[in-house]
Sequence to fold (274 residues):
Amino acid sequence: MTSNRNRMTRLRRAALGTLAAAALALPLAPDAARAQGVVPIVTTMGLDSLSCPRSTVRLGVLGDSLADGLWGAVQRALGQCGSVEVLRLTQVSDGLTHTPPEEWIQRFNDATQSTDAQDVFIVQIGANDLRPLRDDRSRVPYGTPEWDTLYAKRVGELAGALSDRADRILWVGLPVVGEGKFEPEYQHVNALISQTLTALNLPFHDIRELSRFGAEDFAMNAVVNGSTRQLRAPDKIHFTPLGYELIAAALAPEIKDAMATRERKAIFGNAALQ
Fold:
């Protein structure tokens, strides 16, 4: 009798444990999400709003692991288009302190014929650059004015070289991160990149506000289309696939315009458009 009662107790506990796990796996309702500190967001039309172009469009994505996530988002949205080529020039744990601009460009030349210009180059780099630089055999410590000058010089050289190989550059800044020790440093790197690109009359896409996903500071999750979804990776620096897609959506208007420009070029050739 006691044995049967113990067995029933174990079964009830197991059943309750299963129900609890199932409940945790269900999306939270918006009100419950707010109570847990999750901030609801409203999604807008993003890369999924892009249709396949009739003319061949080349999109290059260059940078570190953050850029690789953007490459994945663009590839998922447009990779099925036979008319779109998405070139992957990303390297995990790399940047401009470890690899100088000429080596990044050589990677491009090795991956495709140098005469094949890209219509768009998406760039995101800098997350791994909080370390010393080497210049003419000298070691330049991070956090010094000399480092800032040299780093800005490398940004300018890379931007200039890419501008010679693409119709437009979409340089994406570093996001808000939940790892406190990196946050002020990433803001500093963003400022250096932004100032350099502005001087070159090139756009800089600041995603700090976007990467908050509506939160005041940092959010791991958000309510997307009525369901709570995780948008940031456990390291609080990278994103989940959905997070990357929401970030890449900010580039959709530029990509759409690039496709339209390519279409006009295909129709009118090199004739001046009125």
